[in-house]
Amino acid sequence: MEELYDYSRHRYCIAIDLEHDTITSTLIAINRPTKKSDRKVIVGGDLAEKAIPASMSLPKRVIHVRNIFSELVKIYLKSEQKSLDDTAQYAVFYEAAVDLLQELLDDYKQELNSLNMDFYYTLVLPTNWDYKTREGLFQPLFVKAGLIHKNDGQGRLVFFSVLELNFQNIQMDRPFRKGVELKYGDQYVMCTVDYQGICSVDLQLVSAQYPAFISAERKWAPQLLKQVHIEMPYGSNQLRLSLIACLEKHCGTTLSPEFIDEMLLIISGDFNFFKSIQISFQIVLSRRPFDHLEYREFERYGLNRRKIDAMRSITMEDIFKHISVPAEKVFENESSKFLAGTSNIKIKSIFIFYTTRVNSISKALWLTPLLEKWTKQYKDELKSFPKLIGYRTCSVFCDIDDSAREVTIKQLVANQMKEFNKRRNPVILPKEITIQQPKSWLKPIIFINIGKMTP
Fold this sequence. Notes:
Elements: E1 12-17, E2 23-29, E3 37-42, H1 45-51, H2 68-77, H3 84-112, E4 119-125, H4 131-144, E5 157-161, H5 162-171, E6 187-195, E7 198-209, E8 221-235, H6 238-251, H7 257-275, H8 281-286, H9 295-299, H10 305-312, H11 316-339, E9 347-354, H12 356-359, H13 362-365, H14 367-381, E10 387-388, E11 397-399, H15 402-423, E12 427-429, E13 445-447
Parallel strand pairs: 1-4, 4-5, 6-9, 9-10, 9-11, 12-13
Antiparallel strand pairs: 1-2, 2-3, 6-7, 7-8
Helix pairs in contact: 2-3, 5-15, 6-11
């Protein structure tokens, strides 16, 4: 039997989530009656820019990056053809990452009056960061920063992928929705919508397998079979252009940029409304965003009654038409190639997720109801396409918000601790031995008073 890492020597797990622009860490107390939890945000990306006053300029030679670890990995993965510029930049990013990890640990040590040995670490990484990246980059990085020792066992730095988080999340019971019942051996498509200047969709075909931890109860673990990254023709300016084309078609006239800006604000207001409730994509796309506006609000832009009535009849699906046609074609072609050769008997469902970046950008979030529509349409037309699963009352996609991610990370760490506690071996000591508190509780002590038995 493999030797277990001794987690009893630590008091806390620091879980660091590296998936998005804003890096977060969560403190989880382990093997203790009080389950202390604290979440810190390591500001980066857009948040960092907002935190810097507009009147304040950055010092010369300072490079602002969205996520220092992401930039580090990009250069690391190009290591075979690294240029001199890449090598110099890599050294700068590496030292910055070391400083960040040291600062994070010092913060927790000071706050908890703790030592280095009180902590072990969990890293949540993007699914496409492979084993080489985990062991070749992050293990030495944590050693360099002094968070772990080079002789520490594998258990002190634990890796989870975003795919594992998502797969765990859909099976967990959460407020207002019950976890999805998956079956061993069945295959599922995980569809994740993201936005970084342009919308993208990642498709991952996974198989439900037994988890590494027996204590994971009924939760299955994902085995990644194949994946594809699709860039959608749905960028920052496409929504505006699609709205202009829609209005010109329905109203038969060219409208001023000021009018277009005002209508885009109304659409964004609808986005905030839909984000706060769970409704079907049919309701979202049939919504008439301008129907509630008074005639006088249109008349000041020189529109007559006929054109105003035409505008008020416009649905969200009408507005998205000029975006959706090319985007749907790309998604249909790529998803068909992705699913080619797979068994429609084994592939049961497709789950649609969207990232926190998409959740904060209205023009990106509107892609999710279109994806729901397309997947349902493909299922009706193509028997080989997996069904879109709905496990909420109305909505069929998951919001990977910070709260959900934190709960899921804690559950994965809890499974790990349950497994450790279940598998460590007991030690039986004779009655006369004086008991002193051991340095390690890897093997729990069971006291049995074996005396002379009398009838």
